Amino acid sequence: MDYNWNWSIFWEHAPGESSSYLHWLITGTSWTLATTLAAFILAFLIGGLVGTLRTTTLRPVVWLCNLYTEVFRNIPLLVQMFICFFVLPELLPVSAGDYLKQDLPYPSFFSAVVALTLFTSAKLSELFKAGIESVAHGQRGAALALGLLPYQMYLQVLLPQAIRVVFPPLTSEALNTLKN
After folding, report:
1. Which of 47, 71, 72, 138 has the fewest CB atoms within 10 Å distance of its CB?
2. How many CA atoms lie within 13 A of 24 on its CB side?
3. What pLDDT, on the 0 to 100 scale, is given for residue 165?
4. Are 43 and 49 in contact (CB under 8 A)?
């Protein structure tokens, strides 16, 4: 099979446009990377907080964090993006809705980042919860026996060990965020 690739198509201008197809590809790639980076950083922070709170002994907080995880993990991402872009501005007061739809620079970027953040943070909360629960139970008891407060126990004992366990699937979720 002898195929002759036409690479010059990248430098041609799109019909009715002043930019080339290569410019479109570069612009689309940069927007994709910006959306991924913004959403994953926010999802890492929110997912880490929610996943950590899911392992505490505060029942109402655990219940709310479990509800957050179940809702945003089980609603399909495309539905969440639709809701963020079309439905949410209509549910807000008129001035806030108009700001989200018209006045906000790049409203589609903003809604995509919000939806990806909520969806990915719910998945990351499962990872962080599993990572914290994978730490030997004696570590928690030893930290409490040393007189550490609960937040000190998490920051100095449990989370550093859990991050080592969570890191490989965390990179996989970063790639899933890019694909989404």
Report:
1. 138
2. 12
3. 92
4. no
- SS3 of residue 13 by DSSP: strand
Q: Residue 100 above 90 pLDDT?
A: no
Mean pLDDT, rounded, for 128-133: 94
Return the bridge partners of 26, or none.
none
Cα distance between residue 22 and residue 44, in whole Å: 33
55: helix, strand or coil: coil
- Mean of the pLDDT values across residues 166-174? 94
pLDDT at 10 (0 to 100): 86
Q: How far is CA 102 from CA 34, 35, 89, 91, 149, in A?
A: 21, 19, 10, 15, 48
Rounded Cα–Cα distance for residues 74 and 108 (Å):
23
Q: Is residue 62 within 8 Å of 111, Cβ to Cβ?
A: no
Is residue 56 left, alpha or beta, with left meaning phi > 0 and alpha meaning psi from -120 to 50? beta
